[in-house]
Amino acid sequence: MNKDISKIHELTNNSSGDRGAHILYMFNEYDKYIKNAIEYICEGLDNNDKILLVENDEFFKEVNQKIRDLGYTEKHLTHITYVNNVDFYLPKDNFDAANGFKNLVDLIKPNIAKDLTTRIWGQVLVKESFIIELRKYECDCNSFMGKENVISVCSYNALNVSSFTQNEMLKVHQFFMQDDKIMKSPLYHPKYVSEVEPDEKNKLKKIEKEYQLMKEKNKKIIMENAFRKEREKNLNIEKHNAEKANEMKNIFLSQMSHDLRTPLNSISGFTQLLLEDDKFDPKNKSMLNKISDSSNHLLALIDEILDFSAIEAGNIKLDMKPIPVHSFINECIETLSTNKNHPIDAAIDQVDKRLMIEADELRLKQILNNLLTNAIKFNPSKGKIYVSIKEDKITSSIKINVTDSGIGLPKDGVDRLFEPFYRSERNMKKWKGTGLGLAIVANLSTKMNGNYGAYNNQENGATFWVSFKKTTMVSDVSIDEKKTEKEFLVNHSKLKKVIYIEDQQDNIDIMEAMLESIDEKRINVISKNTGHEGIFKARELKPDIIFLDLGLPDINGRDVLKQLKSSKFTNKIPVIAVSADANDSTIKELLENGCDDYITKPIDLKKLKAIIFNNLG
């Protein structure tokens, strides 16, 4: 025991003539508490004192064992009387001062009769609502022990006892003990060691009541905080699981897209080549067109699913900039008009060509193409499409309306048109699709701070609309000077060398056939199956252009690109990525890292021609 609290009997005896001592012990650390208890008991055993231990069973077993380990015999242990503190202080979950004091006196009377010193060590169990009873008990003990040869250490767990209870106990104990020292109680006074006056009793009751109310409030707050933390924990778990599931879904969809695009490359590629040949009769040409339509439709379904998945997961980056509305819509209409199987008869408002909206160019084109394609799909064979542009000066926005003369919208499904995978029963029977086109329009419009909607026209058909913020910034629109096929053939007098780094023979066959159809005599294609072979051949041959697959058997296509662009022998050679990976993030990454262009499988013959004309002319 610490020297400041050893030999308690000597330290507490004073000139008042008291034989005993009543000591309050507010402990904070359990290890020190049990150490002090053992040393206090052992000091008593050394003095042949009687020991009364009022604690719990676990505490008693530990103390008993440690005293034995210190060499004390069974004879010594017979001096210790143990009483469970629950049975002693709260026999019926109710603290009764008179009953508790009577029990204490009955236990130590035999020792008093024999004029033996009794040491008491006990942890008092507190019920805050019994503070008046508790104080009365301690007052009785204080008065009694001062006249008898009794030293009592009344222990309280300071972490579990309210401050006002601690203050009340300091008033009725002569000495105050902590884990490392003992001192005279700063609040002790004989006037407190008496019957509680009515006014003081009312005051204590009021304090008890207020404390109980505060305790209930704290309990409620603790429970609410615990519930909130549990809810946050569950939400975090759900979020993690959702993110993991979404990641797995994206991986699956990306892999599915890659695996479907690879065989589509052969189907679509050879079909495009056969359609270029004029030797087929109308019947065979029609069959080829149906194959082409089906492969294009399948490709569109794959693109829609991937696009929606990426948008929903937030895996798209927007490059917001001013876009001239009129010319941009005209460009979208012209692109769709090149499809011979789905001609479009569309008229557009003659409006101020300087009107500009703030949007991402790629995503705006996707939105308009979806709305125009939707209008084409539901229009009759000779139906018309009308695109109008309206400026709303109140909201500083520009609204684009795409109106068709088709069957109109189902009355019971207008509110669900922009939901993912929604297709009305009549549409499912007659028109193909995933039901994702309009959902993509809705999601992209929202992400670009725009709006969207649809309604039936008064006469026939329907109108779908999107609106975006108007901007007054002047767009620096530059027109790329692209070489025509005629210019290419005129300037293309010498043999051009092309290296295609690809490990799948079917893809090599498609590329060779397509390049042969562009210019059989003046394009020489050399294929290499691995990245290392391709890099070596490029340095040796110094080709005019390199087509590069990303999924090579030895090294990644990105590493091949890096080596080609970092070598002084090949860094000026145009490198075109050819891949079944259609993710925008992949395309952007490759273009930012030196790739001159990107072709998505299945290869579009028209795009391949444009790349050849612009890089080999």
Please explain how this structure is put together.
The chain has helices at residues 8-12, 30-46, 57-69, 74-77, 85-89, 97-113, 131-147, 163-171, 198-276, 282-312, 325-337, 361-378, 425-430, 437-447, 485-491, 505-518, 531-541, 557-566, 584-592, 605-616, and strands at residues 21-27, 50-55, 80-84, 118-123, 150-157, 175-177, 182-184, 320-324, 346-348, 356-360, 385-392, 397-404, 451-456, 462-471, 496-501, 523-528, 545-548, 575-579, 597-600. It has 617 residues and is α/β, with parallel strands linked by helices. The chain has four domains: 8-196, Rossmann fold (3-Layer(aba) Sandwich), CATH 3.40.50; 231-309, Orthogonal Bundle (Helix Hairpins); 318-471, 2-Layer Sandwich (Heat Shock Protein 90), CATH 3.30.565; 485-616, Response regulator (Rossmann fold). The longest helix has 79 residues, at 198-276. Mean pLDDT is 81; it is low at 474-482.
